[in-house]
Design goal:
Mean pLDDT: 92
Shape: globular
Radius of gyration: 18 Å
Structural class: mainly alpha
Number of helices: 10
């Protein structure tokens, strides 16, 4: 180790994590009817989808949106149902990573297109690939799941929800 590496490690160890920003408001307290409706939408949006696929989609959208709270929550949940760390860590580079199936790739491409809808407008080829991998009901659920995680990301970021220190 060089002196700089030792100093960097010592600094990181001695200082600990940076405090989270103060949460602006708690939606579940201030807007309980809306929050409960979102919980119901969340449950409905993942019906019929493979839990591992659903978590990949949620983590990927959350990474694109920069939502630390949702990245932490959904990667932790994904690991609990058997997802592998290297797959979660490589989501930003899924096109180059060989361990995603054709079905997962179609879902990840659709996730990007819907999450970045103002830029992409969900191109026909992305939609067609998803439609080739998922039946109509699954595709509808996948679109609902992607839309729902994007709402959660926006709520979490706007209210400054932060993951718990680990």
């Amino acid at each position: 180790m060089t002196t700089n590496e030792t100093t960097d490690e010592t600094t990181r160890t001695n200082q600990g994590p940076v405090p989270a920003p103060e949460q602006r408001l708690e939606m579940f307290k201030v807007a309980p009817a809306y929050y409960q409706a979102m919980i119901a939408v969340e449950r409905a949006s993942r019906q019929g989808l493979d839990p591992l696929l659903a978590h990949l989609v949620k983590v990927h959208a959350s990474m694109i949106n920069g939502c630390a709270f949702c990245i932490d929550m959904h990667s932790t949940e994904a690991e609990k149902v058997g997802e592998l760390d290297h797959r979660l860590l490589s989501l930003p580079a899924w096109r180059e990573a060989p361990w995603f199936t054709a079905r997962e790739r179609a879902a990840l491409a659709l996730t990007e297109s819907i999450t970045l809808v103002a830029q992409t407008h969900v191109p026909d080829d992305v939609y067609a690939e998803a439609a080739a991998q998922f039946d109509e009901t699954e595709l509808a659920q996948l679109i609902a799941l992607i839309a729902t995680i994007n709402v959660w990301n926006r709520l979490s970021i706007a209210t400054r929800m932060s993951p718990a220190a680990k």
